[in-house]
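Let's sit down with a protein and look at its sequence and fold side by side. Once you have written the record down, we can walk along the chain together.
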Amino acid sequence: MKKRVLETLGQYIDEEIVLEKPKDKNFGHFATPIAFAMAKKLRKNPMIIAQELAEDVAKHDLFEKVEAVKGYVNLKLSKNFLNEYATWVLQNPEAFGKESGKESVLLEFVSANPTGPLHIGHARGAVWGDAFARIGRHLGYDVTKEYYVNDAGNQVYLLGLSIFHSAQEMLGREVNWPEEYYRGEYIKEAAKEAVEYYHAPFFEDMSNVAKLSEWGVEKMLELIEQNLADAGIAFDTFVSEKELFKKWHAVFQTLVEKDAIYEKEDKKWLRSSDKGDELDRVVVRDDDRPTYLAGDIVYHNEKFLRGYDHYINIWGADHHGYIARVKAAVEYLGHDPAKLEIILSQMVSLLKGGEPYKMSKRSGNFILMSDVVEEVGSDALRFMFLSKKCDTHLEFDVDSIAKQDASNPIYYINYAHARVHSLFKKAQKSFSEVESADLAQLDQKAMDLLFMSLLLPEVLKDAFAHRQLQKVTDYLYELAAQTHKYYNETKVMGSKQEEALLKLFSTAATTIKIGLNLLGIEAKEKM
C-alpha cells in the first residue's frame, strides 16, 4: 500500500519522498512533508509548494482526497483502491507483504552452553530470534538461523564430571563431589541413562570423564533442541566451538601479523583499546590456554569468511562488554565491523499469582523454559516475550496469560479471529465467496477498519528495520480491538450489506492470521 502511494507520488515529485502516518486519522491515511525539502531547492514557500502538489496529485484516482495543511500534503486513499487491495489480499494471502531479493543475514541466537536444559532467560532470545527470522524471510531477507555450540572449555568437562559422580552415587559408591558441579534432576536422569549405556565398570575409571563429557553434550543438545521445538523453534545450522578451535592457531597468527597482539605478564593480549574498547583483552592465558574471547574471535572470523551481507548476534544483556572487543578483533582480521550487529536480550522476571515463580527441581537453580511452555503454552509464551522491546526488562505473571478472557492479549486477538470464523459458519460461506463484494459502499468506520487491516506490510517493515517486534504485537492487538468494536456495533447477518461486511471481517481475520503466524503463533478458529 505504501509502495503504491510512493510510486504514484513519484509521477509528480522528482525527490526522495518520506511518507508518514498522521496520528489524527481525519488528516488522511498518509502525509508527506516533501514540500519543506523542495522549498530550499525551488526557493519557494513550502505552503505554496504543498498546495500546488495537492492540486496535481488529487487528480489521480488512487486518492479520494488530497489537501495541503501547513506545508504537509495529506493523502486519503480511495475506497475503490482499498476494496481492490482487500480483494487481492484475500486471493493471495501467502503473498501479503511478501518480498524477495534482500540481503543475506546470518542470525546467531540462543547459543546456551550445552550443559543443561534451557532456562527462561534463554527462551526470550530464542523466541525473539525465531520471530525476527520469520518476519525477515517474509520480507525477502535470506536469513540463516545458527546455534553456536560452546562444546569446548571447562564447563563441558564439569558436565561430564557431574554425570560421572551422579552415576557413581547411583551405583552406591562413595563420591567426593568437587566444589563446582552441575546439579539437578536432569543430571540424575542423564546419569541413569549413562549407566544403562556404558554399564557399571565404566564408572570406576576417572579417565572416562572426557568421553562422558562428549556423550553428555550430545544428550544436552538433544534436550535443548526438544525445548526449542516445543516452542516452535528450529535452527538451520549448528557450529561447534570445539571444531572451530582447530583453526585458532592460524587466526592467532593473522592477528600477530596485523600487530593486534602483544605479550605482558606471560599472557597474550588483543590491542582492542586501539579499536574503541575500554581495555585490551587477554586472548591466551599464562598457561597457554586460549580464553573465551579467543573462541569468539575464531567463530566470527569463520562467519565473515562465509560471505553473508550482514551478521546479527542476539546476546544476553550481560554480554554487553563483549561487543567492542569482538568488533575490534573482526576489524583486525580484515573484516568490516559495521556488518556485525549485536542485539541484547534483557532478563525476564517470572511471577505466578503475584509471587516469584518457583525454581524447577529438575534444573537445580533456575526456571526451566520447558516448565513454562507446559504451563501456559508456546503461543502465550511467545506473545509475551515479543510484546516488549528485546532490550528492556520483562516481568509477567503466568497466571495472567493463562486467563481465558479479554485481559489476556493473545486470547483477545485470537478471539477476534475466531469470531470472524464463527460469523462465516453462521452465514455458511467461505472467505473466497465474498471476495467480489464491494467494500466502497460501507461507512467510514468500516473503511477505517479496512485500512488498519491492510497496514500489515508497513508494520512488518518498520518492526524489522527498527528491531522492535513489539510493534507487530501492538498492531495485532489494536486491529483486534477495532475488529471487536465494529463487530459489536454492526448487524451483519441479514443486512443489505452482509457480503461486504463479511469481506471486511475476512480481511481483518486474514491479517491477524498472517501476523500471528509470522510471530510463530497459531491463529485459532474456535475458542
